[in-house]
Amino acid sequence: RYQRRVRGSRSEHMDKLSAHVQDCPRVCDLCRKWRAKFERRMAKKKRASPARKKAEVVLTPAAEVSTKQREEAKDWSLWDSSTHEYDEPQSACKFQADYSEVHEHRVLVVSGRATLTTDDGAEFAIGEGDAVLFRGGVKCTWHIREPMVKHFAYFGPDGKQVKANMTIGCDECAANCFEESYFIEELDMDICPKCRKKAIKASKGIECEDMYAGAVLQREGVTVPGKAKKAKK
Question: Distance between CA atoms of 66 and 106, rounded to whole angstroms?
């Protein structure tokens, strides 16, 4: 009779082989064979499974946006497409956005529809209630399909909200008036509160003498509804 040979499990064989390759005092044929096989296998695995890159734009449909996210977004800045200056031709309702100087730009759409197209060709359709996250370095084209209002904010690597490094220069004194400014559409000018007060004072309350009559108050570049600054008669 022949006694049946009991084979060890694959893991046991691999453990023994690994121990041999590591402890072998000389590079024997067995070591060379298995080292070469291991290197080929790793090279093939590396080609087949490239490192995953985080999505540059993350879209969360309205149905999946949490109540907490909606409540937090209420404290963000508000953007209205009706006051935005589009790229030429204006009728196309398109503009380029560059998020290179921020870690994350987050958006929650209040109303309206738009199509986003990144520089690498990815396209996203967004609408009321959707949340969008743009990672730093993303460049994309916004195409406003229906008049849009959205909340937006900037966040740092620690996940905390930060102010973007943005400026609006006063066309009179060159001061940075990003937090609060006055925009004169007819002249295409931005004026700081200090220069606005000087103009009102100089006009002595006569509107026709006010060189900035009809100036609209803006905060962080967004028009504050019903805040056109007019001189008293």
Answer: 14
Do residues 135 and 178 lie in contact, with contact meaning Cβ atoms separated by under 8 Å? no
Q: Give the separation between CA 97 and CA 136, rounded to whole angstroms.
A: 12
Tell me which residue of 187, 223, 232, 227 sits closest to 84, measured CA to CA: 223
**pTM beyond 0.90, yes or no:** no
Where helices occur in the chain by DSSP H, the ranges are 10-23, 29-48, 67-73, 193-203
Q: For 113-131, what is each residue's pLDDT tens digit?
A: 999 999 888 999 999 999 9
- Which tokens go with 61? 């449909």
- Edge-to-edge strand list for the sheet holding 222-229: 189-191, 181-184, 215-219, 222-229
Q: Note the pLDDT of residue 229.
A: 46
Residue 65 has a pLDDT of 95
Residue of 226, 100, 220, 231 whose CA lies nearest to 166 = 220
